[in-house]
Amino acid sequence: MTPYSAEALSRAVAAVCPDIRTRIQTGMVSDERHLWWELSCCILSSQVPYSLAMAAADAIDEQGYLHCDEQSSERLAEQLFVLLSTPLEVEGKKRSYRFPRAKARYLASTWVAVTNAGGSLSALISGDVNDVRAWLVAHASGMGPKQASMFLRNCGVTYDLAILDRHVLNYMTAQGIYSGAQASISGLNQYGRHENKLREHAQELDCPVGLLDWAIWIVMRVANQKQEAILG
C-alpha cells in the first residue's frame, strides 16, 4: 500500500481528472475493424504486458482473421494459435506471447458468439451499456467485468463503467470504501456493488467514474513508484 493519506490521494486524483477530460476522444468508435482490435487487446492483455497485447492485436488485424464473414471456429483458432506462437516485435525486441493456445480459443469462440448474436460488434454495443457488459462477460471468453468495462470505455461507448484493477482497489481501500482482500473481482454482481461505491466517490469529486478510475491508475502508479524509490 502507498504511504500517502487518503486525503492526499483524493486531491491528486481530483487534480488529474480535468486533464483526462481534455484528452479523451469524443464519440463512439463505429468502425468494425477498430472495434475488433480493441476487443482483441482487452482479451489478450490479461496477465500480459499491454504493449505485447497491442502487438498481438496488430498482427491479428493485419492478417484480417477476425474480418471474415464465414469461417469455422476450429480453423480460426488454429490460425490465431500459429500467429500468437510466432515471436512479435515489441519496442524493437522480439517477444513471445504467453498462453497462445488459450487466447486463440478465446478469440475464436468470441468471434463465433458475436457473429451468432448479431453479426457485428457495432450492432452489439448499440444497446444498454450494462446489458452489453453482461453479455460480454457471459459470452466473450476470457473477458471479465474489468476487461468488458475497459473495452466499452476504450470504444467511447460509455464513461460510466469502472475498471476495477489492483491500483483502483488499493485506492478504494485507502479511502475506506473497499475492504476486500481480493486483488481482482470476477463476479459481475460483486463487481457492480464495488463499482457503485466508486461511482458515489466519483460524484463527490465531480468526475465520471470511467475517467476517475483512469486518474486513480495514474496517481497510484506514481505513488507506488515513489515509494519503491524511497525503499530501494
From TrEMBL:
<dbReference type="GO" id="GO:0016799">
    <property type="term" value="F:hydrolase activity, hydrolyzing N-glycosyl compounds"/>
</dbReference>
<protein>
    <submittedName>
        <fullName>DNA lyase</fullName>
    </submittedName>
</protein>
<dbReference type="Pfam" id="PF22175">
    <property type="entry name" value="Ogg-HhH"/>
</dbReference>
<keyword id="KW-0234">DNA repair</keyword>
<keyword id="KW-0378">Hydrolase</keyword>
<keyword id="KW-0227">DNA damage</keyword>
<dbReference type="InterPro" id="IPR011257">
    <property type="entry name" value="DNA_glycosylase"/>
</dbReference>
<keyword id="KW-0326">Glycosidase</keyword>
<dbReference type="GO" id="GO:0016829">
    <property type="term" value="F:lyase activity"/>
</dbReference>
<keyword id="KW-0456">Lyase</keyword>
<dbReference type="GO" id="GO:0006281">
    <property type="term" value="P:DNA repair"/>
</dbReference>
<dbReference type="GO" id="GO:0003906">
    <property type="term" value="F:DNA-(apurinic or apyrimidinic site) endonuclease activity"/>
</dbReference>
<dbReference type="InterPro" id="IPR012092">
    <property type="entry name" value="DNA_glyclase/AP_lyase_Ogg"/>
</dbReference>
